[in-house]
């Protein structure tokens, strides 16, 4: 009986410590520690995304990703203000479901991931050895880092 109470007290203390750590760092708790600065796409993928962006996105968001009229910026401080701290899955799904504006939902999952890779590349996030997946569930634990 005493041993089971000791185990329970220890478990409760461990959970409390984890909750306190999570409260102290909401970004780390939300993302599991991974951000867009963790080399989560490849340079080859970003290059594919650049072509898709030019073909499907640039007419509204501009060649420099700065945004135009009603289309928001996808680079720099404007992008950072809108997206920093949110899961990368949110950006991927927004692009996949609602873009391009004249043909929403016409992009496949991998095309959307390639465009996201290009956006990350343009915003100076480092490239790595593994392609960004087109599955939003896999990107829920990656947080968009502020643009440097």
Write up what this structure looks like.
The chain is mostly helical. It is 57% helix and 3% strand. It has helices at residues 2-24, 26-31, 43-56, 58-61, 76-83, 88-98, 109-122, 136-139, and strands spanning 34-35, 142-143. The longest helix has 23 residues, at 2-24. The chain is globular, with a radius of gyration of 19 Å.
Features:
57% helix, 148 residues, disordered N terminus
Counting H and I runs of at least 4 residues, what is the number of helices?
A: 8
Report how far apart the termini are.
56 Å
β-strand amount: under 5%
Mean pLDDT: 83
Gyration radius over CA: 19 Å
How helical, in percent, are the residues?
Answer: 55-70%
| Low-confidence spans | 1-31
Overall number of strands: 2
Strand order of the largest sheet: 1-2
Structural class: mainly alpha
Query: How would the global form be characterised?
Result: globular
Which oligomeric state applies? single chain
From N to C, what is the helix and strand string? HHEHHHHHHE
> Major β-sheet, in short?
2 strands, parallel
Nutshell version of this structure?
By secondary structure, this protein is an all-alpha fold. Helices cover 57% and strands 3% of the residues.
